[in-house]
Each structure stands twice: as structure tokens, then as C-alpha cells.
Amino acid sequence: MAIQNISARPPAFSQLTSGLRDILPLAAGVAVYGLAFGLLAAQASMDGLQTGVMGTIVFAGSSQIIAVERLAAGTGAGAAILAGLALNLRLLLITASLRDEYSGRPWWQVLLGVHLATDENWALMHAMRARGHQAGYWYLIGGGIGLIAVWVLSTVAGASFASTVPEPKALGMDFAFTAAFIAILRSLWSGSTMLLPWAGSVAIVLLAGLLTPMDPTWTLILGGLGGAVLAGVLNDD
């Protein structure tokens, strides 16, 4: 009788654990701006539980930051949500580029993949493929699990810490939004091909803000839409 190798693991499990392991260095950077977002969320009167639930359901750092900042500025919930969605329209391009990974899978795996796909684990998956490693759907999921765990824990920690500080501005916490957004922008930059979509988005926001009486929330929405259109036209994933 042949002895079964009990240490063998299916390819899906191997890719899952590899993705989880390989994402850890990138997850350390996510933790930094996760803490900053938690501080911002506390300024918008969100507690640790609310921050954690938001991070689990939304799981889109830049969208969450813009939405919470707009809420803190006194805009309505609808406008804040639209601003967050417009800023993250690039994820539509990322999702479209993963159609081969999602093809033929059950609906729950497709939904899980769409929810956990981010700039970091998407880029890491393609980088590993370029090096000749096996990296597919489950590799993407493993990286996404690592990122969402670090993101939720760090944002909850930031919000919980800020709630114990009587005067956040005394510690410079009112700079949390700017610091978090700078960190996210740096992590999203992947090369000179992004220059034109980003420059176009900034130009739209500035022109709309200077030449029209439009509320800043709507200028951000226009900028996000304009940048996404430029990226799509230039085929910039």
C-alpha cells in the first residue's frame, strides 16, 4: 500500500499562504496610514467599532479617508459616499483586468475576489508572475486577507487611541487626514504612466474650484471621474 503524503497541500492552499506571506512587507505600510485614518475617524466622532465595521465592509483606504473627511467638513452622507466612489474608480480597471482569474468561479469567489482586490495585492500578483512564480486567484486572496486584517486592526487602534486623548489638536492629530492621504498617494504611484491621469484630475479639481461656486465635494467627484476617464482612454490599469 502506498503511503499517502499527509504534508501535501493543494495548490490553492499553497498560493493562499504564499500571498499572505508575501504581502506582509506591504501591509506594514498600510498599517501606518491605517493608524492615521483611525485618528481622522475619531475626529469625525466614529468609535473603534464603527471604524472597524467600515473598514471591513468598504475596504478602500482612499475612499474611506475622503468620505470621512467630507463628513467631518459637514457635507451630507450622500455627497461623501459619491466622493469616495469617484476617487476609487480605478478599482473598476483593476477588476476588469482580473476577468481571467474570476472566469468560471462560483459567485461567492468572484465577490470575495472583487472585495479583496487592491492596488497592493494586484501589483504583487503580477510582479510574482513576471518572476516566473505561480500566482493566481488564491494568491490574490491571500494577499487581500493579510491587507484587510492589518487595515482593520490599525484603523481601530488609531480610533481607539484618539478617543482617549482630550485634545487631539494639541498632538497635531488634525493633520491626520493630510498625512494619511499623502501616504496613500505615495503607495498608489506606480510610474510615469500615471502622471497624465493624476495631473488631469488635479487640473479639473483646481479649475472647478476656482472658476465655479461648486462645493469642494463635487469638485473632488469631477476630478475622480476625469482621472478615471483619462486612465481608461490611455489603457492605464
What descriptive keywords fit this protein?
globular, 237 residues, mainly alpha, disordered N terminus
Count of β-strands: 0
Evaluate the radius of gyration: 20 Å
Number of helices: 13
H/E series, N to C? HHHHHHHHHHHHH
Multimerization state: single chain
Helix content: over 70%
What does the largest sheet look like?
A: none
What count of structural domains?
A: 2
Q: What proportion strand?
A: under 5%
Report low-confidence residues grouped into runs of 5 or more: 1-8
Distance between the termini: 52 Å
Given helix and strand content, the structural type is mainly alpha
Average pLDDT score: 78
Shape: globular
Report on the structure:
The protein has 237 residues and is mostly helical. The protein has two domains: 178 residues, no CATH class; 47 residues, no CATH class. Helices cover 74% and strands 0% of the residues. α2 packs parallel to α10 and α5 packs parallel to α13. It starts with 10 loop residues before the first helix and ends with a helix.
Task: Summarize the helices and strands and which ones pair or pack.
Layout lengths: L10 H12 L1 H20 L4 H11 L2 H12 L4 H11 L2 H8 L1 H4 L4 H10 L2 H12 L6 H27 L12 H13 L6 H17 L4 H18 L4
